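Morning!

As promised:
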Amino acid sequence: MADNVPAWWVSDAERTAVYRVIHTRRDIRSTFLSTPIPDDVLWRLLGAAAAAPSVGFMQPTEIIVLYDAATRRHIQQHFETANRAAAEVYTSDDRAAYEALKLAAILETPLNVIFVCDTTTVRGRGLGRQTMPETAVFSTVCAVQNFWLAARAENIGVGWVSILEPDAIKSVLKIPAHLTLVAYLCVGYVSDFPPQPELETKGWEGARALAEMVHLDTYGRPLPPPAHPLTPTSHNAYS
Amino acid sequence: MADNVPAWWVSDAERTAVYRVIHTRRDIRSTFLSTPIPDDVLWRLLGAAAAAPSVGFMQPTEIIVLYDAATRRHIQQHFETANRAAAEVYTSDDRAAYEALKLAAILETPLNVIFVCDTTTVRGRGLGRQTMPETAVFSTVCAVQNFWLAARAENIGVGWVSILEPDAIKSVLKIPAHLTLVAYLCVGYVSDFPPQPELETKGWEGARALAEMVHLDTYGRPLPPPAHPLTPTSHNAYS
């Protein structure tokens, strides 16, 4: 292969780097630093988001980069209200465990990044969306995941906050009513990427075994595991 | 930094590899080979999917690896029916353009991989889903994007087929009614990763400029572009 590698070929070293970033990515809440993110780094992250797949090449994603402190304090109040309401569904030990978790870093991070989907755009001419219209919003989720992995590759942490009322956030950020709020991210450099997900370390939820998630040909039929043990770059470090 | 780099630090070379894979990933329909995918490679892809973020660490994703030829011929028939119906909404030139596109590779690939979400699992104890329950399905989409990027890093192509009726596919694959079909992927080695998305090359849809997607602090307010031009690894090669 060595003498005859096409221009698009990804090398073993590059592949190992990609797996390392996939397996060491974390949902960060507790280890953020306030260090600013340089503009060129931010634009690289935004470029990675824009390079995500989209159904019919519709590229329905709009991204708001939020620095403004007053706006973020306003959103923090919305988060606190939603989080108090969320805590109320838990009882006794579960409630204490929930209240001990840190679930957002809206003010501690240097910026927040909000992903919105325009499901009404004529871009893509509707291709692929007649049977599964939800793929418009899924395209924006793919952009979020590209952003998240690019951030990990820049040694930047991301925490996704979903304990927010979408309509309230849309109102604060002046997002038109016909757009869909997909993701609210807190973004910043970190003091650590922990080896395990924080929700696992803190006992909120354990990791599933990989084989349990995989089915062969029809649902419920197990896929036999590989003959050789997985290599370090392929091990299943969930988060 | 050199003497004092933490274990989790991603190097410049690793970062460049991640951006290369993000920017050269494509939705593949036309360049698949029938070469089998070794089991250990397949399990690395599945491990990458399982390492995706999930709301409340619920890990709601179930993955069906589909080799069976008769099942795939059955699904191909469903695709052809859905695709004929989809073509009928277009008229004149648009219809000819639509019909000239290749939109699936269900039978030409060595395997198909189907992603399903169990939004009803008690895993994660509902954390993060009271205000945005759609984040359960979004977690499965993040798993799809991890799989897709890992595949690109293995020089394996992926094509996402959404021109399928989810209920029909669930019935064929014996997926329980309470689970949600998220993604149907055709997966295989390729003869080429084209430099541009096929839908762009074939004139179906053009690429958006990155700056047009990005807003500062509130929707509709532009973020000034970076002082320095983006580097090659950050350029905006959409797909």
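The beta strands of chain B are 61-66, 111-117, 156-161, 180-189, 214-216.

Hope this helps with the figure draft.
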